[in-house]
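Fill in residues.
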């Protein structure tokens, strides 16, 4: 039995626009089907459904998507593109895009920087708490 599991994102009439927005940002992405009610799309091989459900429900931080980044260039790219056109910055690598969906833009090395020496981990955490977009060099200096 091979049951796919994927998120269905509820939009207020913006599902097609959102799918196009995300497909422009993430490489290897495409819209796979599009109707007035539902748009199916893939981001880096991951399946999503966008539903034009109306204004009853809004996104909140209880659900977020994490983007693992290899370096500062990738952090900057995703941060800049996902906050474009009305998105907002938050703390510690979190942001909301222009549709209100929450994202975490995280360098892959963050976990390694938090391991080991408790004092170093504490310094890294303190530095992280002062940031909106994560700056890898500042975390490494901590």
């Amino acid at each position: 039995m091979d049951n796919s599991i994927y998120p269905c994102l509820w939009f207020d009439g913006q599902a097609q626009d959102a799918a196009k927005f995300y497909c422009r940002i993430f490489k290897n992405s495409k819209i796979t089907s599009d109707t007035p009610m539902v748009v199916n799309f893939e981001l880096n091989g991951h399946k999503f459904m966008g539903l034009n459900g109306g204004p009853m429900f809004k996104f909140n931080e209880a659900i977020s998507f994490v983007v693992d980044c290899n370096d500062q260039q990738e952090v900057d790219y995703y941060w800049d593109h996902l906050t474009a056109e009305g998105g907002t910055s938050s703390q510690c690598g979190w942001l909301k895009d222009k549709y209100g969906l929450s994202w975490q833009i995280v360098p892959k090395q963050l976990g390694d920087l938090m391991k080991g020496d408790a004092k170093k981990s504490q310094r890294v955490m303190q530095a992280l708490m002062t940031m909106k977009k994560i700056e890898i060099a500042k975390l490494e200096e901590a």
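The chain has five helices and eight strands.
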